[in-house]
């Protein structure tokens, strides 16, 4: 079995890349001046953001490969496993890397809200592709962070560094919103495929054997990460993927309720509910009446 190398400190990472450690909890690296990453599999204990400016060797996330293109941002969160595979040519990426330890943001507003930046859990094929202006903004944020790192650490250092990371991540949220819009035609195709997945789910025996369709299941069927899929559906429909699934389940439920040969409990089990009372509660929440009231009214 392939050995997995743990990367849980900034200094260990810097030494591997052949660069000086200016701050124990954060590093900004010009990749053109750094040693190449060895072809190994790493378990990251750091937050890492890579700005790739030239096509280079592959990174492998699980079973997925991705060739970075110019102006691409990729995000990695602590606990993720990343495999580096060199291409035919020597693996010599150009661009920048920002890595920071989770301890850096503990007790800060960023530490409390880091989960809001869902793109840290996106798959590599859901990377952020930048325009030239966006790329310049990213480089400017990196430059400000690097400036603070090169100064002697004082009582303002942490606040200024973390504030600049937070500013950078806010920009990334804006850029991803732009990317969702500019890829609107692709997104509409995903909505149609999402509907197809749900329809197929309910013409199979999956509800009885698996239960209600989950966001993770639908995302996996569409070959997307759960976070990217959820964010995309929210942008396209204004509701969460979970709410979208619930609406679909209620549409099917309304049809099934007219089958008077089946009890409400049987319908609930057919839809994938583990407990009939959960079905009744959700149905009343969505329609304003219980399944029995809906059946009698119609």
Automatic annotation (TrEMBL):
The keyword DNA-binding belongs to this UniProt entry's keyword annotation: yes
Entry GO MF terms: DNA-binding transcription factor activity; sequence-specific DNA binding
Keyword Ribonucleoprotein part of the UniProt annotation: no
Keyword terms: DNA-binding
Domain HTH araC/xylS-type residue range list: 192-297
Superkingdom of the organism of origin: Bacteria
Protein name, entry field: AraC family transcriptional regulator
Lineage of origin: Bacteria, Pseudomonadati, Bacteroidota, Chitinophagia, Chitinophagales
């Amino acid at each position: 079995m392939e050995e997995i190398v743990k990367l849980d400190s900034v200094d260990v990472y810097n030494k591997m890349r052949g660069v000086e450690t200016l701050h124990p909890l954060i590093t900004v690296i010009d990749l053109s001046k750094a040693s190449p990453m060895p072809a190994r599999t790493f378990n990251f204990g750091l937050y890492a953001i890579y700005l790739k400016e030239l096509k280079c060797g592959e990174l492998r996330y699980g079973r997925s490969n991705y060739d970075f293109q110019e102006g691409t941002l990729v995000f990695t969160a602590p606990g993720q496993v990343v495999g580096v595979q060199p291409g035919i040519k020597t693996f010599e990426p150009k661009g920048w890397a920002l890595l920071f330890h989770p301890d850096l943001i503990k007790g800060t507003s960023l530490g409390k809200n880091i989960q809001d930046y869902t793109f840290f859990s996106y798959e590599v094929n859901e990377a952020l592709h930048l325009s030239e202006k966006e790329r310049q903004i990213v480089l400017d944020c990196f430059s400000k962070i690097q400036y603070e790192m090169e100064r002697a650490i004082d009582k303002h250092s942490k606040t200024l560094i973390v504030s600049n990371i937070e500013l950078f991540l806010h920009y990334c949220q804006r850029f991803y919103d732009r990317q969702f819009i500019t890829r609107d035609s692709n997104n509409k195709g995903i909505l149609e495929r999402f509907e197809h997945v749900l329809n197929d789910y309910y013409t199979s025996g999956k509800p009885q054997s698996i239960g209600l369709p989950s966001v993770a299941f639908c995302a996996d069927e569409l070959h997307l990460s759960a976070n990217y899929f959820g964010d995309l559906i929210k942008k396209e429909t204004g509701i969460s993927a979970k709410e979208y699934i619930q609406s679909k389940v209620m549409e099917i439920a309304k049809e099934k309720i007219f089958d008077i040969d089946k009890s409400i409990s049987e319908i609930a089990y057919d839809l994938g509910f583990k407990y009939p009372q959960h079905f009744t509660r959700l149905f009343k929440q969505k329609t304003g009446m219980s399944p029995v009231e809906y059946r009698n009214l119609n």
